[in-house]
Structure formats: structure tokens, C-alpha cells
Structure prediction request, 630 residues.
Amino acid sequence: MSDMSAPLDSRVEIVTPENIAFHYRVAGPFRRFPAYFIDLLVRWAFLLVLLIAVSAAGVVLGGAAIAVFLVAYFVVEWFYGGLFETFMNGQTPGKWVLGIRVLSSDGQPINGVQAVLRNVLRFVDMMPMVSLQIFGGPPLYVLPTFVFALLTMTLSRRFQRIGDLVCGTIVVIEERYWLTGVARLEDARARQLAEYIPLEFRVSRSLARALAAYVDRRRFFSPERRREVARHLAQPLLERFGFPPDTSYDLVLCALYYRTFVAERFGEGTREDDLGRNPFRAADQPQPAAVVLPASNSLADRPGP
Amino acid sequence: MKVSQLLEQRRQNWRELEQLCDGPRRSRSTAHAVSRFAALYRAACADLALADAYQLPPDTVQYLHRLVGRAHNRLYQTKPFHVSVWGQALLVDAPRRIFQDRCVQLAFCVFWGAFLLSFFLAQSQAAFPAYAEEMLSQEVIEQLESNFSESLRGRDPSLNYAMAGFYIQHNTGIGFKCFASGLLVVPGLFICLYNAAFLGAAFGYMARPDVPEGVNFFHFVTAHGPFELTAIVLATGAGLRLGWSWIQTGGLTRLASLRRAADESVPLIGAMMVLFFLAALIEGFLSPSGAPYSLKAAVAIFSSGALMFYFIVLGFPRSANRAVG
Prediction:
């Protein structure tokens, strides 16, 4: 939402043809490597099954069965990712498990050529290869280190490896998120206190966001911690509302939250009100009656459990 | 309306959209489900666009971003391959691009220059007695000699299938590795030079007059040579096109230049794969057979002619008018 947070965040904004902007989180190496590892296991399992089938069929077919296995090995080695990403809408089995998906940089789905090319170019991302000989192993085997992939992911803003950069693709996290709705306030005093908040006080958008962020998370905090966190916002509000200074900070924020999200008509204080108000009659509006608060000690912080 | 009321109202729609996202793919769902999905998606988009004005809590906004993202990916799906344009790409785009491509020309010169030089060094035993052994190593030479110690009489036909499969898997894989490492220029050139020097040394060693296995060796390699060696040159050239594109960008940003080169190199890779497959079939079935050398030479001449036709006749640059007419 605010541009200042963009450079530090792993978020990309996609603007669709419907002119809607929405956000994705970009998948980093620690989510993509497990996906690759799962794909590797799937590939090996498939080849193992095929090898057993081919060995069984080899009795009848002879060399043709071996040829089938070798060609299948070639296809799986070079086109596994490309084919799956083409026909599973940007996902391989491993990516599906990890909930990530390949998209074009502009958020559109990829095409088959992009899918195949970015998987063929993984060979460069795996470099430099390290021979097991260094560790006293047999000289033939080489281990991919993926150092180039990590380097380019670090240097690019969207965690793109070399294959992604060449094909113009990104890998985004596509996970479900639970709809929580409005927080329930178990404390009835917040509702009572909400009625004493002056009617002309308008909650700005940034204040509403801050309130929602606080109230959604306050149940994870201890009372002392709530007091500490809420103080910065609640102290000026207390003075403004004319509440007794020993009112619980937490309670003030809850009350304001209740009024903003549950009790108040939304739009009040933002749109319709601004448009519909007659500036010449502002003076006629009734002044709020003097507030008579309940006994102030009942609004102070309750002793912690 | 209160925010909480609004949320209660929308909750049903959002849940339904979520269920449709998890449901069967678009191609397999009913017309009703598709139109319902579109309506719900538009509604969710509108809710997200107005989230700020509605003062929805941040958690809900986050939820909407995820929901719209998932629905977007459900609606816009991957475009599969356009098989109909493959013929055009292989027969029209690829040869014209290859004909004009400086990188393919460079790869051609590097490969054949190194090959001929290595051939000459390995063959002239008197002047450079140690070159072939150093280049190929003693083990490789012994293996080559034992492989080609008997004249070719053909082998078990089922072995032919297996070997053709092996050549497809192994050689095309090398081609892809050549292409991919060309992106980093130096590894690409190194692999090209190494292959050229190695093959040249093997050919040169076998061409020595005192090596009796040479006859069988050339009997074996003649038929599939043109396709295979051209394919490796193409792979290197396509890789160098990628690597050169981010060095000399032609006024674009490095990434944009790289992307354009990647698009351009795709037909070359297609041509490379076709050539490797053809070479593998010849190498698997004709080369080891006992067919007379004249037949194999004829195949080599014919395939060279076909390559000439492909690169020069099909690839010769046409003026824009003639291309339209």
C-alpha cells in the first residue's frame, strides 16, 4: 500500500487487465529448493518404476525397451519441469506441494516456450559443479552447487534465478489465507466506553489500520505488554477525548476499534459525510453533551490474571 | 453499513469463489460454474479495489489479495505450445536466423578451426609425437582401438535400438548443456573448444597410416558425422547468442536484450534437436551395420547436401517485398 515499504518487501504488485492491482509474495530460495527436491524425488521414482517395467518388458522386446527407457530418461531429464509447468498452469508436483507457481514478470501465465527454456537453463543455475573427488569420492560424479542461482536471486529484486531472468518469469507464493473478519471483543466495557468517544472524532485510514493491527494481535500479548504497546497511541487520544488519565490504554483502543469497525456506519466521516455536510449549517450542529463517565477506577487496567 | 455487516454479507461470495478455485479445471467445469466464477471474481476484485474506502481490517485485505491472486491464476491459464507454428519456426525462421547469425558463424569457425588444428596435430606423428596421447589419454586410445579392432558387420538389431536411444539421450543432452553454458560465454566456448579438440585428435589419430583400426573408425563415423557435428555447432552458436546478448545489448537493457536473444534462440534449439535425433538414428542403425562404405558415404553426402539446402537456400535472406509476395 505505501510505497516506502516496497523495496524492503518480497511483494510484487500485479495489475490485471481488469485494472485491479493485487499483491503476491515472491518465493525465495528456501521455498523453491524443497520444491525442486520433491521434483527430483518424483523424477527418480518415475524412472525407477519405468526401469523395473522396462526390465520386465525387456525379456520380450529386447533393446527396444532399453531405447524407450533412455528416451524417457532424456525427456524427464530435460523436459520434466517444462512440460509440467505448461500443462499444470505453472506448477510442477513439487511446486504444487509447496504452494508456489511460475508466472510471467507481469503476472500473466507463462507460455510453453518460457516454461521449457527456464528449465533447460537450470543447468547454468546449478553451476559451478563440484566433483566429489574433493571429498575423496569417486571422480566421475558432480554435485550441483546452485551458487549462480543463489547469486542472481540475491542480486535481483524478485528472487529470480538465471533461467527466470532470461525467460522473464517469477515464482510467487500462492497460498490460502484464512478470513478472520472483525475481532471479537470479550470485554463489555469497550462497548460502553465507545459511546463516550466524541461523535465528531474521525478515524483516519492510517489510524484505522493501526487499530486493526493492534486489536487483531492483542490476544497474544500479556497485559503489561498491551499497556506498553498501546500507550503511544492511547495517551494522546485520552487527552483529546477528555477521559480520565488512568483509563486503560488497551481499553481505549478497543473502544475506538469497536466504534470504527463494528458500531459505526462506514463512510461516516469519510465520504458521504464530507459530501453531504452543509458548511453553512455547521454552527447549528448540536454540541456534544458533557460526558459523564462511569466511575473512573472501573476503566483502569484490571490486575493481570 | 458497518464493516462487520459488510464482511458478513461478502463472506458467502468469497467462500464460494474459494471453492470454485479448488474445483475442477476450467475446461472441465460447466458453463454455469464458469460464468458464476467470473461474476464472483469481478466482485472480489471490486471489493479489493474498494477495501481502503470500506476501511476493511488489514487481515481481510491480505485475505482478499490472496483470494484474487488465486482466482486470477485460475482464470488466466498457461498457454500450451502452438504446435502449428513449429513447422514455420523450423523451416523458415531457424534457417534464416542461422544464415545471418554472427554467433553461429563464430561457433562454426571456432569448432572447425580447433577440430582441423587438432586433427593435423594428432595425425602428424613425426612432428608432434606426444599430442594425441596427451589430448586423448592412453586409456581412451586403447578403448578406441579395441572398439574398432573388428570390421563392422552389423550387430544384434535389438542393440541398435538401445544405442539409438542412448545417442538421443547422451548427445542431445550435451547439446543442451552446450547451449545453456553459452549464456556464461566462457564455459560455452570452453566446451565447444574441448569437444572440437577431442574429436579432432581422435579423428587425427585414427587417420595415421600406422593405425590399422582407422579404416573401421571412418567406416563408422562417416554417415552420421555431418548431422552430429553441425548440431553441436548450432548448440554452441545459440548459447553464444545468449551470452553475447548481455555483453553487447544494442541499446536495450541487459535483461531486455537477453530476453530477446532467448526468443530468437528457440528455433535454433529446435533445429539442433532435430539434427541430433537424425544423427542418433543414423548412428544407431546405419553406422554400425555392415553396409558398404559407398552407401555410408552417399548418406553423408546427401545429409551434407540437405544441410546446405537448409542453411543456404531456405536461409538466404529475402527482401521484405518478396517475403510478402
Observations:
- Confidence is low (pLDDT under 50) at residues 1-5, 266-291 of chain A.
- The beta strands of chain A are 11-15, 21-26, 100-104, 129-131, 142-144, 169-173.
- Residues 276 and 282 of chain A are 12 Å apart (CA to CA).
- The longest strand of chain A covers residues 21-26.
